[in-house]
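Question thread 4412

I'm putting together a teaching handout and wanted feedback from people who do this every day. The idea is simple: show students a protein as raw sequence, then show them the structure tokens that encode its fold, then repeat with a second protein so they can compare. Below is the first pair exactly as I plan to print it.
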Amino acid sequence: MDIVYLIVIGLLAGIIAKALTPGTAKEPKGCLMTMALGIAGSLLVGFIVRTFLGGGAGGFVPTLVGATIGAILLILLMRKFWK
């Protein structure tokens, strides 16, 4: 159930992250890329929190903030290597 929760949060986080970092015309865009980056960011931060802090994020808002930060980091990383 936790993974499903992180995926749903990731969808929201992807939308927020893409709104905060809109990007250029040269990088891939679209709903699927936004969802994929959000979900990946959410799962990444969820894994880091559970591994290094030993527990959950503590609720909806902290999870959403962490997932958004993870998605933004993935967007910036994708931009660095996308050419």
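The second pair follows. I'd like the answer to focus on this one:
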Amino acid sequence: MDTKEATDIKRYSIKPGITREIDIIPIEIPSHHECFSLPHQTDFYQIFWIQEGCLSLMVDFNELQLASGSLLFLGKEKVRQFNSTSSCSGKILLFTENFFCKKDSDIDFLQKLTLFDYNLLRPSTITITPKENIPITLFNIIERELNIPSDTFQYDILRNCLHNLLLHAERNVLKQNYRNIKKDSNFVYASQFKDMVETSYKHLKLVQDYAIKMNVSKEKLIQSVTRNLGDTPKRIIDQRILLEAKRLLIHTNKSVKEISFELGFDESTNFVKYFKKHQKTTPKEYRQNFYFPLIS
């Protein structure tokens, strides 16, 4: 770890010149492994379609094996690293919020999708079957549209196809993972809490703090979150803090002291105690002993 030069996780932005901020690019590993073999994040959404072979990767410390016919959905902030010994080919559909979101409800739509849900322990994947291949059909329509000259209709066609692709994929991933979410008032509280954790976990670490900001009782918040997200609010807050701590420990050479202050701890000793309580090891030991079982 000490030989690492970068002090931050590598971050990729949309390629300059892609004015539409949506594109489909081919992927072939190991040919393109140099672009993907280092830990990295993106500021755009990605949908991977594995057409041939098998792709192995790590996404925020989750090991994934994607076979031919799989779709993988990755949000903006997830840290991913691909196994250079994989052998696969396929395509990546990438798009930005600027492309998709033209009003507040569009942002809300993306944030509420299970496909890109940053509080799920594992990224969303679906296996395409002959009876449920509508996402692939829409994928292909988008690609054909991108390959013809732009006109006044193109943006709406691209966006509508992408919107429908996401809706069909959301239906499939819920069906394949047997998630049945009742969108009542409890769901609203849980959804608001989830969004607030993502933006506030560095300075709000107590359930009571979130309840006050949401103007709801702590008991009601615990009930709503546990019922809809399958875990307690405290554990979700802790998981988000620990995820960021692990990202910084493993993918950067920032000191434990720097990481502790970045995560909102007043003293580095408090961070060390917090980390050890949850991980049963110190941050330094975690960094020294960690390895990627899939990465050669």
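Top answer:
Good format. For the second protein you could add a caption like this: Strands lie at 10-12, 22-29, 40-42, 45-59, 62-66, 70-74, 80-82, 87-95, 124-127. Residues 1-6 have pLDDT under 50 and may be disordered.
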